[in-house]
């Protein structure tokens, strides 16, 4: 079979471009099929969406060469403070406290607005001769054939490659057409996302309050602004989302607290229903899944993108090592190396976040006392806290080279 | 070559397709070879790169090298070598392996010259190679010195031979005969005759007598927990590979 490119990536969001860049830089030709029109993608306006990048994710962005374009727009997170709180009562006595000074490297992570991240990916892809970017087009069919896979696009074109990567989100068509079923849970919760401007500087500190109805994260953006991710039960969230801006701020104020002074909205508001969806397999013959297509997780602490970039690091390394051995990069035994590397990690994290969310979204006084004690214990034992932090920063376990900031 | 498949009876093609699928099914009959293949390829690519000064990170690093894969089977080594840019001749004495390998190479878009012949048949001509691979072959041949001499003869001066086999000791009996054939049923019983396994010292003697200089040897060690293989500097107790250069 004659291949139009080595790899076709379905999905032009963030994980797809990151993978395409990593593969192209190592010598593979990649076609990225993005359902979104180019102009919409390169929007300059801040749309309120931002990511909490773990240190490992930042290292991957550096290793694939996009970090220099992002460094000045990224807000370093120097400290993360987590507390168990109820509106109007303030934080619980034991405060879970992460401090970048306890890691051997500062900071704990970076906050980055979506508009900067995607633009950097777009420019890097346009400058990479081994990447072909197709906008405003989607994959409508795929057929495995001996020696490759043939993909049909929405404009009728057919493209052949050794491998098709599904980076097409939690309702992945690539996974569905490959016969990979999904397992999912609905949390009955909705995340309200908005950018907030505040009077006082945040000093690079991120806050996470676990409240009875769901967590509220306050994540520092550049300047006197923070991004909030506020989870509420579906009914309450719908009611809050329906409020006008002034009333929205009235409801937010007692939860947000006054430690950053007066607050106002700094962009549009969004709401996302929270659910978890896991693909039963990450690999099929000539197909691999990354990001939300493999595991759509609860967006607490921005772990969705971080998990996705770990997929990118692992899959890129598996494919490039296979290529350098002369192996067929679309063969199932090669793709299964990626699957066994990633599946345990992302599934345990997905289920872990599910458990954390369930534990904290509960007003049972016994659980509440237990949480306070548990957090106090984590705080009291430096080794445990550091380990917790290293896990959250993606620095432990068998880490792909790109996530260590090393070239493939 | 690709055209060769066109001369075959269509009923035969269907049979060969099934056999090709079998050869290349990582969970099928040839699973042990698939499991071992990455570590064999790691060894071969590293040795070729070192001998010919090639950069494995460059595209098609083996371009310009003529390579002979003796006992090519379904092409598990020939295809990767062709993908890395080598001009590959795959030889197999079993006639039914050849159309199977040809069909799969064609499906993979690779040009490989597969021939139904013995290494000796090629040595009788004046065709010579930069690289000769004889992986897991020598433990199956009757005249080990004669076979090693043939491999050496097939090399150009400065050419590289890579050979792998099984060591002969109680551990290899347990691993390769009891483990792989009797317990795991990975290989049909009788695939290997333990008495034909060769110690590294014996292999080095064969290589020296054939006029080659051994340049490297490494163990290939199976980890039953990860079900993976890795190269090992010291442990040559069961599977091992050697590289030798023609003076």
UniProtKB/TrEMBL annotation, chain A:
<dbReference type="InterPro" id="IPR010971">
    <property type="entry name" value="UbiH/COQ6"/>
</dbReference>
<feature type="domain" description="FAD-binding">
    <location>
        <begin position="5"/>
        <end position="342"/>
    </location>
</feature>
<dbReference type="GO" id="GO:0006744">
    <property type="term" value="P:ubiquinone biosynthetic process"/>
</dbReference>
<dbReference type="InterPro" id="IPR051205">
    <property type="entry name" value="UbiH/COQ6_monooxygenase"/>
</dbReference>
<comment type="pathway">
    <text>Cofactor biosynthesis; ubiquinone biosynthesis.</text>
</comment>
<dbReference type="Pfam" id="PF01494">
    <property type="entry name" value="FAD_binding_3"/>
</dbReference>
<dbReference type="GO" id="GO:0016705">
    <property type="term" value="F:oxidoreductase activity, acting on paired donors, with incorporation or reduction of molecular oxygen"/>
</dbReference>
<keyword id="KW-0560">Oxidoreductase</keyword>
<dbReference type="GO" id="GO:0004497">
    <property type="term" value="F:monooxygenase activity"/>
</dbReference>
<keyword id="KW-0285">Flavoprotein</keyword>
<dbReference type="InterPro" id="IPR018168">
    <property type="entry name" value="Ubi_Hdrlase_CS"/>
</dbReference>
<keyword id="KW-0503">Monooxygenase</keyword>
<dbReference type="InterPro" id="IPR036188">
    <property type="entry name" value="FAD/NAD-bd_sf"/>
</dbReference>
<protein>
    <submittedName>
        <fullName>2-octaprenyl-6-methoxyphenyl hydroxylase</fullName>
    </submittedName>
</protein>
<keyword id="KW-0274">FAD</keyword>
<dbReference type="GO" id="GO:0110142">
    <property type="term" value="C:ubiquinone biosynthesis complex"/>
</dbReference>
<comment type="similarity">
    <text>Belongs to the UbiH/COQ6 family.</text>
</comment>
<dbReference type="GO" id="GO:0071949">
    <property type="term" value="F:FAD binding"/>
</dbReference>
<dbReference type="InterPro" id="IPR002938">
    <property type="entry name" value="FAD-bd"/>
</dbReference>
UniProtKB/TrEMBL annotation, chain B:
<feature type="binding site">
    <location>
        <position position="135"/>
    </location>
    <ligand>
        <name>S-adenosyl-L-methionine</name>
    </ligand>
</feature>
<feature type="binding site">
    <location>
        <position position="40"/>
    </location>
    <ligand>
        <name>S-adenosyl-L-methionine</name>
    </ligand>
</feature>
<comment type="similarity">
    <text>Belongs to the methyltransferase superfamily. UbiG/COQ3 family.</text>
</comment>
<comment type="pathway">
    <text>Cofactor biosynthesis; ubiquinone biosynthesis.</text>
</comment>
<protein>
    <recommendedName>
        <fullName>Ubiquinone biosynthesis O-methyltransferase</fullName>
        <ecNumber>2.1.1.222</ecNumber>
        <ecNumber>2.1.1.64</ecNumber>
    </recommendedName>
</protein>
<dbReference type="GO" id="GO:0010420">
    <property type="term" value="F:polyprenyldihydroxybenzoate methyltransferase activity"/>
</dbReference>
<dbReference type="InterPro" id="IPR029063">
    <property type="entry name" value="SAM-dependent_MTases_sf"/>
</dbReference>
<keyword id="KW-0808">Transferase</keyword>
<dbReference type="GO" id="GO:0061542">
    <property type="term" value="F:3-demethylubiquinol 3-O-methyltransferase activity"/>
</dbReference>
<dbReference type="InterPro" id="IPR010233">
    <property type="entry name" value="UbiG_MeTrfase"/>
</dbReference>
<keyword id="KW-0949">S-adenosyl-L-methionine</keyword>
<keyword id="KW-0489">Methyltransferase</keyword>
<keyword id="KW-0831">Ubiquinone biosynthesis</keyword>
<dbReference type="Pfam" id="PF13489">
    <property type="entry name" value="Methyltransf_23"/>
</dbReference>
<feature type="binding site">
    <location>
        <position position="71"/>
    </location>
    <ligand>
        <name>S-adenosyl-L-methionine</name>
    </ligand>
</feature>
<dbReference type="GO" id="GO:0102208">
    <property type="term" value="F:2-polyprenyl-6-hydroxyphenol methylase activity"/>
</dbReference>
<dbReference type="GO" id="GO:0032259">
    <property type="term" value="P:methylation"/>
</dbReference>
<feature type="binding site">
    <location>
        <position position="92"/>
    </location>
    <ligand>
        <name>S-adenosyl-L-methionine</name>
    </ligand>
</feature>
<comment type="function">
    <text>O-methyltransferase that catalyzes the 2 O-methylation steps in the ubiquinone biosynthetic pathway.</text>
</comment>
